[in-house]
């Protein structure tokens, strides 16, 4: 879902006149004199943008502590009752809201700009939370969840796009992973605060998150690439200065951005021609497949069974504490991913993630199969009581290192600018629809074929994912889009003039 445009140039380097070919991203000249330019302003802008992801994370985690409370017969959190089936809809409606907005938001942010679009999203986010907070009936509560889903889904497109466009190639992966990191922080916030405060207080706190985001992000610069495409060159220069510092070769990067924008304007390529190129089709296949494997990995099944797994392991931990522990594991593992993704690379983290998740799902399947066959108190099940807790923890760590953050990064890294909005938006739509499908069918699938068999099914899917990653997905660490296009099958001599 990231939106990255790379250029390829020859640049004089150093005082001795040596020449070197270097890659340039849409937000950075990959440096003619080494990795110059200040990084701190880019980190600040990226973290500010991903406060929207924090709001989306709190939206995702909200249902875990709240729906359990409001569906109880003696609940006094709302002045109306909520049945279990209605509670399921309240939980899952955000997925439909997010799926509905992913495609149009890609077009909107190309018209209004990344910054204005994200600032505008504070309005539906705030409106949705106010409807949830002051709901007088179930319909109003569901409407609030649907609207917050729209805002959260839109942030899943705009925040990664903005972050990737302001980042230098050397820190692009780290800044790109901040999105998933802040989502997990938001989920942990919901688990921790929602479990130990009233629903009303929790809702008010969730309402404040997008408002705080809007206030902070208001002072951040717009994407330089967007400004150049719109012909606002002076604003683009000022944006680059704010992001890189005055000692950086701003004019050099700006000139190349302008040249590429002019080339794209003078040599238009139809969308049909762009999307049907061999490199584009391979990029689309990879982006969609990663979203498919992410949601069919069983991550929701594992999260839903957190309390059951902790109980099966004989851990005397109440459900609220168990979910908080899982939330902490997610945050720590995603933070580690953000630190190593530009050092180890995307491909190795995805391979590690798929392999470990496959092994853990197999182990969980074995445990629950034996539990169903021999009973909870059987000697073989008791002897393996340590297995589900270990498998759960390793599964969450592996997902957070690879399949959590990286699929959201790949559209921007693999796709050229003329198809990027379409691919990132439709990939996001596919992700949310798959999330809704898995969420709404897991319980019935579990009852029909057995929990052990369900986990084995997830293990099989991750095995296929491992094979797909090994043979199909290239390593994009530190590469310009031109270099990535060559890895996807483009002719080297044509990448200089391809429309970005």
TrEMBL record:
Subcellular location: Cell membrane
Main location per the UniProt record: membrane
GO molecular function annotation: sugar transmembrane transporter activity
Pfam families: Sugar_tr
SUPFAM superfamilies in the record: MFS general substrate transporter (SSF103473)
A GO-annotated cellular component: plasma membrane
Keyword tags: Cell membrane, Glycoprotein, Membrane, Transmembrane, Transmembrane helix, Transport
Topology class, membrane: Multi-pass membrane protein
Domain Major facilitator superfamily (MFS) profile: 50-477
Taxonomy, superkingdom: Eukaryota
Signal peptide: none
Transmembrane segments: 43-62, 89-112, 119-140, 146-163, 175-194, 200-220, 283-304, 316-341, 348-370, 382-403, 415-434, 454-473
Family the UniProt entry places it in: Belongs to the major facilitator superfamily. Sugar transporter (TC 2.A.1.1) family. Trehalose transporter subfamily.
NCBIfam families: SP
Stated name of the protein: Major facilitator superfamily (MFS) profile domain-containing protein
Organism: Leptosia nina
């Amino acid at each position: 879902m990231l939106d990255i445009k790379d250029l390829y140039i020859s640049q004089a380097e150093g005082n001795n006149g040596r020449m070197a070919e270097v890659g340039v991203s849409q937000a950075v000249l990959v440096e003619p004199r080494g990795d110059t330019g200040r990084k701190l302003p880019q980190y600040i802008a990226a973290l500010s943008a991903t406060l929207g992801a924090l709001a989306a994370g709190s939206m995702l985690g909200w249902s875990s502590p709240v729906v359990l409370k409001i569906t109880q017969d003696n609940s006094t959190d709302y002045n109306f009752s909520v049945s279990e089936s209605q509670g399921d809809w309240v939980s899952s409606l955000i997925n439909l809201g997010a799926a509905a907005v992913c495609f149009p938001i890609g077009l909107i942010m190309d018209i209004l700009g990344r910054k204005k679009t994200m600032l505008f999203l504070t309005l539906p986010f705030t409106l949705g939370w106010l409807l949830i907070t002051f709901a007088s009936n179930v319909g109003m509560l569901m409407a609030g969840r649907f609207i917050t889903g729209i805002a959260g889904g839109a942030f899943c497109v705009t925040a990664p796009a903005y972050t990737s466009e302001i980042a230098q190639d050397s820190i692009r992966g780290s800044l790109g992973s901040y999105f998933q990191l802040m989502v997990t922080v938001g989920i942990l916030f919901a688990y921790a605060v929602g479990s130990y405060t009233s629903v009303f207080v929790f809702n008010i706190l969730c309402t404040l998150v997008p408002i705080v985001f809007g206030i902070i992000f208001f002072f951040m610069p717009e994407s330089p690439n967007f400004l150049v495409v719109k012909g606002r060159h002076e604003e683009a220069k000022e944006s680059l200065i704010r992001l890189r510092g005055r000692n950086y070769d701003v004019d050099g990067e700006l000139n190349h951005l302008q040249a590429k924008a002019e080339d794209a304007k003078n040599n238009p390529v139809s969308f049909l021609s762009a999307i049907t190129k061999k490199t584009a089709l391979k990029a689309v296949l990879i982006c969609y497949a990663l979203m498919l494997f992410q949601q069919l990995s069983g991550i929701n099944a594992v999260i839903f069974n957190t309390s059951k797994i902790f109980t099966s392991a004989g851990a005397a931990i109440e459900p609220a504490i168990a979910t908080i522990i899982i939330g902490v594991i997610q945050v720590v593992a995603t933070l580690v991913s953000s630190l190593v993704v530009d050092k180890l690379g995307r491909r190795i983290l995805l391979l590690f993630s798929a392999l470990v998740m496959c092994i853990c799902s197999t182990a969980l399947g074995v445990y629950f199969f034996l539990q169903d066959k021999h009973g909870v108190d059987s000697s073989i099940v008791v002897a393996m009581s340590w297995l589900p807790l270990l498998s759960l923890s390793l599964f969450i760590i592996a997902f957070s290192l690879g399949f959590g953050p990286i699929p959201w990064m790949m559209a921007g890294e693999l796709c050229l600018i003329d198809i990027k909005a379409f691919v990132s938006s439709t990939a996001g739509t596919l992700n949310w629809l798959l999330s809704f499908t898995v969420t709404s069918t897991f319980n019935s699938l579990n009852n029909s074929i057995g929990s052990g068999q369900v986990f084995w099914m997830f293990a099989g899917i991750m095995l296929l994912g491992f094979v797909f990653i090994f043979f199909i997905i290239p390593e994009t660490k530190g590469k310009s889009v031109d270099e990535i296009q060559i890895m996807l099958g483009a002719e080297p001599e044509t990448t200089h003039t391809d429309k970005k």
